[in-house]
Write a structure and sequence with these properties.
- 2 copies of one chain form a homodimer.
- By secondary structure, chain A is of the alpha/beta class.
- Chain A has 2 domains: 172 residues, HUPs (Rossmann fold, 3-Layer(aba) Sandwich), CATH 3.40.50; 107 residues, Pantoate-beta-alanine ligase, C-terminal domain (Pantoate--beta-alanine Ligase, Chain: A,domain 2, 2-Layer Sandwich), CATH 3.30.1300.10.
- Helices cover 37% and strands 23% of the residues of chain A.
- Chain A contains 10 helices and 11 strands.
- A 6-stranded parallel sheet of chain A has the order 1-4-3-2-6-7, with helices on both faces. Chain A has a 4-stranded antiparallel sheet with strand order 8-9-10-11.
- In chain A, helix 6 packs across helix 7 and helix 9 packs antiparallel against helix 10.
- The interface between A and B is medium-sized, with 26 and 26 residues.
Chain lengths: 293, 293
């Protein structure tokens, strides 16, 4: 695996790959890689003849009181994992390469960025959209792969790509979970053993909603109440938000009807903030749903 | 000249040109073409093997009380001029092709966009930056050509291109003027004959500043006072701003020293808003300046 540190070198690497008619797939990450990231790489290897990944701990998507300084940094282990997974090129720039002192441009996806995660983390999605746009301009992939755990992020990036007429296709991949249901996240390493046990409540709550939906419940408030009840049973967990939203607009819905919806969760377990979601899609058959955890 | 109306067709046209190893130059316009635009096209023909232009009257860069509805629309004459000037492809999309109903993404170049033109025209540069980024993504030119009359716009677009790691090189071309010095602008057609005569005061004021600078004046306030005195002598002209700014930061300077500066003017002549500028660059020799009107 080639490791590239500068933008001009990365652009030249991409130019060469495209000149050789490669289909370039791209997985942007902040490092601290886990099986979720590696599942994106395996998917990319199926669709693309060249797989590029990036490791860049993007400061602009962290709020002033968030965990930028303590975010896990595991570069050597990450490189080993990416090499083993078959990544061809790793782009790992320093912060000043991405944000020189004169930097002053930002991208906003209005209407989708201010609510839910964006409300809890002001400026977060501006930081995400801006850095991902920059990475897309540098790497110019035909395909980019993201995990569905960050459902709102993926929706925002898809909207950005559409609105700005980018040539990249954004591929959304399933959530990867621990055997007990906890969605993989680099932040799981913050949890002590008691918190780690309590954190399974996110999956338990969403799974209860899934079962209810599958047995016919279409009332969003009822699903929300079930989720809330299960979360409340876990004393170490403090709720941030529970929302049942349209999967396109991320606006709350009152009933599950003809369009896909997300049940979205954000909680604090101790000092660690975790998110998770359940995707509910109407199936072809009458009243049937496909629920993806 | 080929006229392209849709984004997919334009992308395919560009793809073909790039596959044929053409160097693509691009001139985005809002139509109502004049000799200033045509000078950009002539310059593009010198540097590039394919010249693409666009005509798109971008609604998002007009404020609610501005002249979008009465902005001159001269499509047939524009097509004739572009054809005669040797443009290969004209991209002329409808508004709904550029801004579908779900559109919600915006680009801001912070710090450069809020002052001067941006202060007089809130949201203007957001609209400009966003539509030009979209056009760059659609047309993917190696070079794009802009007139120096819109000095702040060009500076913002250069910053955007740098910050977002775009591959386009932005080429700034000289201001084209009428024989009496009035800078060409599509908005000049709004002027009645009395106003047209009064409008020459912009050039007269900047030319006086040029002469003063050339005879040794380095004090920005003094240059500003001279400009102001000449503008004030014209009763049909109402001043918006006069500013002597660093050509990089667009921050006011008190003295002309080692860096390029702009003398920037914005005035109303009757109901018509006009801008103009003088570029003052330090020459290699001691104390010498190169002044460009």
């Amino acid at each position: 695996m080639e490791i590239v540190r500068t933008i001009p070198w990365m652009k030249e690497t991409v130019r060469q790959a495209r000149a050789d008619n490669h289909v370039v797939g791209f997985i942007p990450t902040m490092g601290a890689l886990h099986e979720g990231h590696l599942s994106l790489i395996r998917r990319a290897r199926m669709d693309c003849s060249r797989v590029f990944a990036s490791i860049f701990l993007n400061p602009t998507q962290f709020g002033p009181n968030e965990d930028l300084t303590k975010y896990p940094r595991t570069f050597d282990a990450d490189v080993e994992k990416l090499t083993a997974a078959g990544v061809n090129v790793l782009f790992a720039p320093e912060s000043k390469e991405v944000y020189p002192p004169e930097f002053r441009t930002h991208v906003d996806v209005q209407g989708l960025s201010e609510k839910l995660e964006g409300k809890s983390r002001p400026g977060h999605f501006r930081g995400v959209a801006t850095v991902v746009l920059k990475l897309f301009e540098i790497v110019q992939p035909q395909f980019a792969f993201f995990g569905r755990k960050d459902a709102q992020q993926v929706r925002i990036l898809q909207q950005m790509a559409t609105d700005l007429n980018l040539d990249v296709k954004i591929v959304v991949c399933p959530i990867v979970r621990e055997p007990d249901g906890l969605a993989l996240s680099s932040r799981n390493t913050y949890l002590n053993s008691e918190e780690r046990l309590a954190a399974t409540v996110l999956h338990r709550a969403l799974d209860a909603a899934r079962r209810e939906a599958n047995t016919g419940t279409r009332d969003a408030l009822q699903l929300q109440a079930s989720i809330q009840g299960i979360l409340a049973s876990e004393p170490l967990v403090r709720m941030d938000y529970i929302a049942i939203v349209d999967a396109g607009s991320f606006e709350p819905v009152s009933r599950i009807s003809g369009r896909p919806v997300y049940a979205l969760l954000a909680v604090h377990v101790g000092k660690t903030r975790l998110i998770d979601n359940l995707l509910i899609e109407p199936a072809a058959g009458q009243n049937a749903l496909i629920c993806s955890l």
